[in-house]
TrEMBL record:
Modified residues (4-aspartylphosphate): 60
Response regulatory domain boundaries: 10-126
SMART domains registered for this protein in UniProt: REC (SM00448)
Gene3D superfamilies the record matches: 3.40.50.2300
Record lineage: Bacteria, Pseudomonadati, Pseudomonadota, Betaproteobacteria, Burkholderiales
Any single biological process term in GO: phosphorelay signal transduction system
Species whose genome carries this gene: Pseudoduganella plicata
Annotated protein name in UniProt: Response regulator
Alphabetized UniProt keyword annotations: Phosphoprotein
CDD domains: REC_HupR-like
Length: 323
């Protein structure tokens, strides 16, 4: 019994010969939903509409304008899960062999086709596309889980190393609010590194940040005198990317610095400016002050405020969940 049409895989066949397109469709009509295109430009338009659902792309090599290799390279860059197959009746295959060796083309099918072989090749290509999608989905789930683990460890380490005192711990809300406003990457490539190496590098990075923050706090303590102006200190910390506005509000135009420690790879040192930012929050908390941060269309807004109580375990867990 034939599968319902909506359960069949999607295949795109590209050829400037109408007879070849019709033959390909008929050969696979009970095996796949086949889209056809007569040119590379037409195929690219179909890829834009159906690329995420497409299992297999088969293209003739010799066509007016761009050739099949160019189309398959285009698909390789944008839709890597799609299995790409080149077919031609000609024998100039040097470029094709190179593309296959580079992994851009899955295989080459010579014309004319044997219908049994063609159906078998398409079935195997569809199976490979399904495996690729399953692999990518599982990898995405694994990276998402590791991302949450890394961020949870970093937030916990941040609290333990730099904000462990009852007073200083009140700065954690401001710090994490800023990181959320700046944005944290969903699943960067460095999460694929070996888990032990990742944890080791992260530990050394955290220790370096803790040392830098403590030195900056000492500098702030030494220079303290007179009323505390949180926005003036923020301006000194961030430089020209920060400006004071009316009614006691400041604006940071380039907020990426606020998320450096949480966002960057473990082999990327945290910048001195980020260390000064964290130190400023710790120092302000010692004076029962903090900064309320909110995202805006122009950046991140800063408002001075009085501190609340230190975070509880449940409060810290709720912050971790938000990332």
């Amino acid at each position: 019994m034939n599968k319902p049409a909506n359960a069949l895989p999607l295949i795109l066949y590209v050829d400037d010969e109408p007879g070849a397109r019709k033959y390909f469709q008929r050969a696979l009509e009970d095996q796949a939903n086949v889209l056809t295109a007569a040119s590379v430009d037409e195929a690219k338009a179909l890829l834009e509409r159906h690329g995420d659902q497409l299992s297999v792309l088969v293209s003739d090599q010799r066509m007016p304008g761009a050739n099949g290799n160019a189309l398959l390279f285009h698909a390789w860059e944008r839709y890597p899960q799609t299995v790409r197959i080149l077919t031609t009746a000609y024998s100039e295959l040097a470029q094709t062999v190179e593309a296959i060796n580079q992994g851009r083309i899955h295989r080459y099918l010579p014309k004319p086709w044997d219908i049994t072989t063609l159906r078998l090749e398409m079935a195997q290509a569809v199976d490979l596309a399904l495996l690729r999608r399953r692999h990518d989905r599982l990898l995405g789930e694994k990276l998402s889980l590791r991302r949450r683990e890394v961020l949870a460890n970093r937030i916990g380490t941040l609290y333990a190393l730099c904000l462990a005192g009852a007073t200083e711990s009140a700065a954690l809300d401001a710090y994490l609010s800023g990181a959320l406003c700046a944005g944290v990457a969903a699943a960067p490539d460095w999460l694929m590194e070996d888990c032990a190496q990742l944890a080791s590098a992260d530990a050394f990075r955290a220790a370096a940040l803790a040392r830098a923050v403590r030195l900056c706090v000492e500098v702030l303590e030494t220079g303290a005198g007179g009323p505390v102006d949180p926005l003036a200190l923020a301006a000194e910390t961030f430089g020209p990317t920060f400006r004071r506005g009316a009614e006691g509000v400041g604006l940071l135009a380039e907020p990426a610095v606020l998320a450096e420690y949480l966002d960057c790879a473990p082999d990327t040192a945290v910048s001195p400016r980020h260390a000064r930012w964290l130190a400023l929050l710790v120092w302000l908390a010692r004076h029962d002050l903090t900064l309320r941060l909110t995202a805006s269309a122009d950046g991140v807004q800063f408002r001075p405020a009085r501190t609340a109580g230190p975070p509880t375990r449940a409060h810290l867990a709720s912050w971790i969940a938000r990332f």
